[in-house]
């Protein structure tokens, strides 16, 4: 879809733009996770493109939506790989800044023979985004902005930005552990402008530690003006509510191989349903389905389905 802006500038309207950290994930298999003054060895190394918002946006792109991304990488090998990967998935890159200085974000993960892991995040230039670098018009020409966390100060830019985007742009937020740990006070500004909040049970607890009852926890978040809340519950499924109606939707019974990115995949399916005008109940069904496709395959994006895969399972409900 195209829209005329001003006199003669033709600009594309996107369905969804992601705004979150872009990281190259390096997963090392090790004989053991070394403690202080200890030495261990690496048996295998796998690299993959990561970042929670990027995973969700790739999921939406696979489902045929027009997607874009706002983020920052450096002019290094990692940055080039991250850009190539998004481009290969058909994600618009006009909002991605490639800095001439610094390092691209990376996550070094160490996994031992028992599957225990230790993660080290190097945010690199993810933490150096300035408001001057952001093209507000890009963010005004999308139906939805999906926000995920940054480890450093870019949360301030996300907050500032929300003041400037038009009210008809839907904002979805997945706080992850990083933002949930900050607590409700730090998150207030983001929550005030969030329409759809997607979080897991642990994050719900972290954000509402002084409230005992589940429905009171949810209510305290709805009071920020949030329209829809989804609480993801791993292999059990999810709970979704708009304040009037609440549903618990069971996860699909599939052979789970790797849950990396399951939450991000769920978000793709849910937001796809929402953008297609489906009810919260149907959107949650699609979320569970997309997440089930993700956990059947290794990594965060290799199992993400195409639109035809969804239609073959839920034909009547999706069209
Ligand atoms: N073993 C499983 N079998 C089927 N579906 C699963 C399984 N584990 C997770 N899911 C699906 O993935 C969704 C999201 O998982 P989860 O609740 O772990 O989210 P999350 O904690 O945000 O994940 P992430 O660690 O990716 O951020 C669940 O709501 C469910 O639909
Ligand atoms: Mg999550």
Descriptive overview:
With 319 residues, the chain is α/β, with parallel strands linked by helices. It has a single domain (2-21, 52-99, 126-318), classed as UDP-N-acetylmuramoyl-L-alanine:D-glutamate ligase. It has eleven helices and 15 strands. Helix 1 (52-62) crosses helix 9 and helix 9 packs antiparallel against helix 10 (280-295). The longest helix has 16 residues, at 280-295. It is globular. The two termini are 19 Å apart. Mean pLDDT is 94; it is low at 1-9. The structure holds adenosine-5'-triphosphate and magnesium ion. Pfam families: PfkB. It comes from Methanobacterium subterraneum. Residues 19-306 form the Carbohydrate kinase PfkB domain.
Topology:
Blueprint: E1 2-5, E2 9-12, E3 14-19, E4 23-30, E5 42-50, H1 52-62, E6 67-74, H2 77-88, E7 96-99, E8 105-111, E9 117-122, H3 136-140, E10 142-147, H4 154-164, E11 170-173, H5 176-180, H6 183-192, E12 196-200, H7 201-207, H8 214-222, E13 228-232, E14 237-241, E15 246-250, H9 262-275, H10 280-295, H11 307-318
Parallel strand pairs: 3-6, 3-10, 4-8, 6-7, 10-11, 11-12, 12-13
Antiparallel strand pairs: 1-2, 4-5, 8-9, 13-14, 14-15
Helix pairs in contact: 1-9, 9-10
Bound molecules: adenosine-5'-triphosphate and magnesium ion.
Q: Counting H and I runs of at least 4 residues, what is the number of helices?
A: 11
CATH H-level name... which superfamily?
A: Ribokinase
* Biggest sheet character: 9 strands, mixed
- For the termini, the CA-CA separation is 19 Å
Helix-strand category: alpha/beta
Overall pLDDT score: 94
Bound molecules: adenosine-5'-triphosphate, magnesium ion
Strand order of the largest sheet: 7-6-3-10-11-12-13-14-15
- Strand-residue fraction? 25-35%
- Helical content class: 25-40%
Overall outline: globular
Task: Supply the CATH architecture.
Answer: 3-Layer(aba) Sandwich
Q: The CATH topology, please?
A: UDP-N-acetylmuramoyl-L-alanine:D-glutamate ligase
Q: Give Rg in angstroms.
A: 19 Å
| Count of spatially separate domains | 1
- The CATH class: Alpha Beta
Secondary-structure element series: EEEEEHEHEEEHEHEHHEHHEEEHHH
Low-pLDDT segments: 1-9
**How many β-strand stretches?**
15
